[in-house]
UniProtKB/TrEMBL annotation, chains A, B:
Domain HTH tetR-type: 15-75
Pfam families: TetR_C_11, TetR_N
Segment forming the signal sequence: none
Domain of life where this protein originates: Bacteria
Keywords: DNA-binding, Transcription, Transcription regulation
Protein known as: TetR/AcrR family transcriptional regulator
This protein's record includes keyword Transcription regulation: yes
């Protein structure tokens, strides 16, 4: 099914190649673990020439990084609803939906894979985390501009994303709407007290 | 170095075999990913006969589960200091120390491995999570007996363990004492308000 969607995705040959190569990397990381496949394996599975991959991405590390950034930035878009409360709830619900799906652990697998990849892998991982942090920071900056008092981007990682990821990682789903809302409630109560002075 | 310690560990041949087999599984999961090695591979690396492993553990799933439970229960002992505050700080510091080490991601890798292992893997994962939850619950029950108002075990997973794991997973260390203390502070403030009535 995913193959089918991928092949029919609009955008011409270049976009089709990119989608097929990304899909192959995600599968190979899941099946073999990072370090246990080559650019040749990716090319075979994606049905493209090795040289196309080398020309476009240069190395397996930078290809893996591209896959990770794409997964993170296209899978759970950051809402802009006009209030931090509903932005956070919408974002958390989107993340929960994505990581509960069949490729739910792909981002975590890629993050772990890159962490094992030495300096180049670490650099790639930093880039994809920075991209996500930048997007979250924009949401928080919009809230601050409106006069709201947002938490820091790292607080969202620690108290919203981390619990969602770990619950899925340990197979402790499903991530119910009530559970997700309770995480957002706590985050807002801890970092954005409305009436309580402490 | 680890090999050396393992081999010299006291407890006779049975304990030495167990340690060598556990070490081999941890390495193979890290190097190959779960599903990409057999009991024969474990036996070869540990220097024991296949039949010893089958006799003792029965299957790769139950062996992997045993390794995961052992890692979780021996690596970060739960303190009993007489106060919830210092129990939590000691426990969090121990977890942070363990996951910051060279085998830091082993528990996460094993958890992900078991999650991919179908029904038998899921059952094994549940057993190792239940064991850890039981230990944490004992710490919380001791606090309740002393008249303290502890958070729930799942709150400790969500707001103490999850951020520590995700920070390491995403290579966002080091886990400084100040950072760890801030997580404990928030947990206690959110679930164990001392003077603030809300």
């Amino acid at each position: 099914m995913a193959e089918d969607n991928t092949v029919r995705r609009p955008g011409g040959r270049s976009a089709r190649v990119r989608a097929a190569v990304h899909h192959a990397v995600t599968e190979l990381v899941a099946e073999n673990g990072y370090g246990n496949f080559t650019i040749g394996d990716v090319a075979t599975r994606a049905g493209v020439a090795d040289s196309s991959i080398y020309r476009r991405w240069g190395s397996l590390e930078s290809l893996t990084s591209d896959v990770a950034v794409t997964l993170l930035t296209t899978s759970s878009p950051i809402p802009d609803t006009g209030s931090l409360d509903s932005d956070l709830r919408g974002y958390a619900a989107g993340v929960a939906r994505d990581i509960s799906g069949p490729d739910g652990l792909a981002v975590l697998r890629l993050a772990m894979a890159l962490s094992q990849g030495g300096a180049i892998g670490a650099d790639a991982r930093d880039r994809f985390i920075d991209e996500r942090r930048r997007q979250i920071q924009q949401m928080l900056d919009r809230a601050a501009t409106r006069g709201e008092k947002p938490p820091a981007a790292l607080d969202i990682l620690d108290h919203l994303l981390a619990p969602l990821y770990i619950r899925i990682l340990f197979g402790m789903g499903p991530l119910t709407p009530d559970y997700i809302d309770s995480l957002v409630d706590r985050l807002l109560a801890a970092f954005h007290p409305k009436s309580v002075q402490r």
